[in-house]
Amino acid sequence: MSRFRMYPSGAQEPALLRQCRHARYMWNLALEQWSMWTPDKAPAARFVEQARQLTEARAEFGWLRAGSQTVQQQALRDFAQAVKNFYARTHRRPTWRKAGLHEGFRIVGSQAARIEKLSRKWARVLVPKVGWVRFRLSRAIPDAKSYRVTRDRAGRWHLAFAVVPAPIPAPGTGEVVGVDRGITVSAALSTGDRLTCPSLSDRERERLRHLQQRLARCRRGSNRRLRVRAAIARLYSRARDRRKDWVEKISTDLARRFDVIRVEDLRIAQMTHRPRPKPDPDRRGGYLPNRRRAKAGLNRGILANGWGLLVQRLEHKAAGRVEKINPAYTSRTCSVCGHCAPENRESQAVFRCVACGHRANADVNAAVNIAAGRAVSARRETPVRVSPKREPQHATSV
After folding, report:
1. pLDDT tens digits for range 18-27
2. What's the pLDDT at 380?
3. Which residues lie below 8 Å from residue 339, measured CB to CB, with a gap of 6+?
4. Secondary structure (3-state) at 311
5. pLDDT for 104-148, tens place per residue?
6. DSSP secondary structure string for all residues of 117-163
7. 125: closest CA among 138, 101, 141, 104?
8. Which residues partner with 325 through β-bridges?
9. Is the model's pTM score more than 0.90?
């Protein structure tokens, strides 16, 4: 999806927010109709019936008629597609959209093609009921039949075109690479490279801690609390943008250099669940310690390193060339002799085989096992070709 940064004027931003409210209202209304259905009732209204109801509602309510019918109909169509995806078991169940969290709408049809180039760096798009809105030309405008206007928590507006880029062709060298994902080292490659995902700087972390303390002292519903929340959202958006930029660069580089990319088959959604409470049998209504603070820190580390996003983008760019390997015992198996023992892991970063004495970085050793396709890579049951070792590349924060 190609995304551009939009710069609406002070008069256009309230009109865009009004369109977002209308789209969110139609989505939640359709969700309410669908959620209230029971087997003893008639089938829930589908898109065609909901579109007819929308026409009647627009004739009755002026505030709804003031918005764009295209935006409102498309929200109903998006919900119908979400329900279809849910029943096909490819997506999760549709949920409620909230103000400040889900701000956006989609435009399709002939209105999606109303784009004019102003200069080498600027262009403008015609948004229904809003007018011409400028956006930054950071890349070539794709030939798309629809676009989506969104607003993130930091207050930034974006214009996204629904296009699927072509996969990156394989280099044809026959080389295989293994990728081991971690917390301290975001991605360790079987070539010896250790990559670190950039995040907030020390100064930005200190400011984030200060803002979170101010937020705890703010009165709920006050204007000061809204300003502090917006400042916190801007800091988080910086970390998110850096993480996405890092993932795009690393995934493109791996797709261009290797024919086969092997990663661990990790269920990240299950790994980042919060721990269940442990009732205390000796104290009624009490609970035992369940290390929830430590688990919360681990979850933040997993999500901050972009584990899932990296594999997702690899599957998009290297379609059919990404293989998921069972991660069992890859971190405690020697990549030279194949000996597997917990004692091989001398520390979090050091691997030393107690059988043959092989010593290496623990993450790189696991990546070599993943590249072989299984933990017993030294037995050569799966032939593997790895590229010559390169100097480690460390991503730095900007």
Report:
1. 999 999 999 9
2. 39
3. 333, 353, 354, 355, 356
4. helix
5. 999 987 666 688 999 999 999 999 999 999 999 988 888 888 899
6. E-SSSEEEEEETTTEEEEEE-SSPPP--SEEEEEE-TTS-EEEEE--
7. 141
8. 264
9. no
Q: Which portions of the chain are predicted below pLDDT 50?
A: 375-398
What is the Cα–Cα distance from 63 to 118, expressed in whole angstroms?
33
Measure the CA–CA gap between 237 and 154, rounded to whole angstroms. Answer: 7
Which pairs count as long-range contacts for 139-147, CB under 8 Å and 24+ apart, including other chains? 139/2, 139/4, 141/2, 141/115, 141/117, 142/2, 144/2, 144/112, 145/108, 145/109, 145/112, 145/113, 146/106, 146/107, 146/108, 146/109, 146/112, 147/106, 147/107, 147/112
Per-residue pLDDT at 384: 40
216 and 232 Cβ atoms separated by less than 8 Å: no
Whether 366 and 180 have beta carbons less than 8 Å apart is answered as yes
Distance between CA 92 and CA 85 in Å, rounded? 8
DSSP state of 166: P
Do residues 364 and 190 lie in contact, with contact meaning Cβ atoms separated by under 8 Å? Answer: yes
Handedness of CA 126, 127, 128, 129 (dihedral sign): negative
Structure tokens at 194: 């250790």
Q: Please tell me the number of Cα atoms within 13 Å of 154 on its side-chain side.
A: 15
| CB distance 151 to 159 below 8 Å | no
Neighbours of 281 (CB within 10 A): 8
CB-based burial of residue 167 (10 Å sphere; 0-12 exposed, 13-18 middle, 19+ buried)?
Answer: middle
Q: What are phi and psi of 115, to 5 degrees?
A: -130, 135
Structure tokens, 64: 């709804």
Contact 247, 313 (CB under 8 A): yes
